[in-house]
Amino acid sequence: MSRDAETSAPILPVLAQRWSPRSFDPTKSLTLADLTPAFEAARWAPSANNAQEWRFLVGFRGDSTFETMTANLSGWNASWAPTAGAIVVGMYEDDPENKARDYAPYDLGQAVAHFSVQAHADGLFVHQAAGFERDAMALAFNLPETWKPFVVFAVGHLGAPELLNETLQAREIAPRVRRPLDETVFTGPFPSA
Fold first, then answer.
1. Are 129 and 137 in contact (CB under 8 A)?
2. What pairs with residue 55 in β-bridges?
3. In this structure, is residue 22 part of a structural domain?
4. pLDDT tens-digit profile, the chain (193 residues)
5. pTM, whole model, 2 decimals?
6. Quick check: 7 and 180 in contact, CB under 8 A?
7. Closest to 43 (Cα-Cα) out of 146, 35, 148
8. What is the CATH number of the domain that holds 151?
9. Within-domain flag for 80
């Protein structure tokens, strides 16, 4: 089954093919060396004033960091993410005295996007999620007060949809859809409601 996006204009194949599965192969492991190219891509993401105000904490399935991370996932994420080869917490530095840091969450998002595209180019899959206990994660890893966990993402090799429960299985194989481009990009005022 092809998961390639049906685009209205040609885009890079790695972007058209990138998607966010919930089923990861629980028999395949990852190492830091496997993720180094993706972290390198994230390192070179643009940031306001070149502040590079993002950091990543990574746990690999089977280690205590991974176990702590999965224990702090919430909702559906707690059911599917533990089969991934790695879990990554993306965080940004918040500094109320530095107005340039207003862009820190945006810059973190760019870094995660760069990571995702590189990981996909390397044959891995990434699923980003917001469902986790941020305060508990910060406490568990002794993060300084200025560092804010903002996103978690699972990374791994693609697993079969049948590894998921019925509800998630249906979501895994559902057609990929996006709002049409003409409802996303405007060249003037927004249309009247």
1. no
2. 91
3. no
4. 678 899 999 999 999 999 999 999 999 999 999 999 999 999 999 999 898 999 999 999 999 999 999 999 999 999 999 999 999 999 999 876 766 678 899 999 999 999 999 999 999 999 999 999 999 999 999 999 999 999 999 999 999 999 999 999 999 999 889 999 999 999 899 888 7
5. 0.93
6. no
7. 35
8. 3.40.109.10
9. yes
